[in-house]
Amino acid sequence: MAPIQIPLDVLTSRLNIQDRFAGFRNTTLSSRFANMRPVAEFLDFKRLSKPANFGEVQSRVNYNLGTFSSNYLLVIVLLSVYALITNPLLLFDLVLLIGGMWLLGRLNGQDLTIGTFQATSSQLYTGLLVICGLLFLIASPFSTVLWLIGASGVVIIGHASLMDKPIDEAFSGEAV
Questions:
Q1: Where are the alpha helices (DSSP H) in the chain?
Q2: Per-residue pLDDT at 156
Q3: Are 151 and 139 in contact (CB under 8 A)?
Q4: How far apart are CA 44 and CA 166, in angstroms?
Q5: Is the dihedral of CA 28, 31, 35, 39 positive or negative?
Q6: How far is it, in rounded angstroms, from Cα 89 to Cα 95?
Q7: Which of 47, 60, 99, 131 is deepest in the core (most CB within 10 A)?
Q8: Is the pLDDT at 176 greater than 50, yes or no?
Q9: Measured between alpha carbons, how far is 107 from 78 in angstroms, rounded to an integer?
Q10: 36 and 70 Cβ atoms separated by less than 8 Å
Q11: In whole angstroms, what is the distance from residue 59 CA to residue 47 CA?
């Protein structure tokens, strides 16, 4: 029996993923956060309401994802920081890996000699990889990433679907 083959171009063209991320790749980090909405507008509890039907949910999500995209990016960054703080072993492992790579890069490819002990740069990189790899597996990064995806999805989609459009935007799409 032949394996089932799903054409990925059909899925990606349907979701329009390429065009959605084209603008994200071309912007710098400072310009990405430049269009951040104020906290008072982002957390305007007067505009929170239950949508009447699924069509209204789609309309709200489309509008709010475009309007508050920088705020949602900040929410993801803050949830990532929270996830690292609550998983100290993963934080230690990342600091060890980044610090070790930085220190080994400062050797400029030369051997490390301490007394009679001598290690080549490839041995040092291999030792760092083995130690950080084992710590990485113990630190449960996959559950942290899955929690981050779930938590940010619930917060962002929940906010986007419950936050009503402003009055002036609500009637702009209707024909006169």
A1: 8-15, 17-25, 29-34, 39-42, 54-67, 69-86, 88-105, 121-138, 141-162, 167-170
A2: 92
A3: no
A4: 11
A5: positive
A6: 10
A7: 60
A8: no
A9: 35
A10: yes
A11: 15
Give the whole-angstrom CA distance, residue 68 versus residue 52.
22
Written as six digits, the tokens of 23 are 């603008």
84-93 average pLDDT score: 93
Task: Kindly report the backbone phi and psi dihedral angles of residue 117, in degrees, each rounded to the nearest multiple of 5, phi listed first.
Answer: -85, 130
Looking up tokens 């209204």, which residue turns up?
A: 56
Retrieve residue 159's tokens: 């906010």
Q: Residue with structure tokens 């001598």?
A: 118
Alpha-carbon distance values, 149 to 33, 77, 145, 146, 154 (Å): 21, 12, 6, 5, 9
**Measured between alpha carbons, how far is 73 from 156 in angstroms, rounded to an integer?**
9
Q: Match 């709200």 to its residue by tokens.
A: 60
Looking from the CA of 15 toward its CB, the CA atoms found within 13 Å total 8
| Both structure tokens of 102 | 């930085």
Residue that is written with structure tokens 């699924």 in the block: 54
Task: Give residue 27's identity as a one-letter amino acid code.
Answer: T
Q: Which residue has the tokens 């920088």?
A: 70
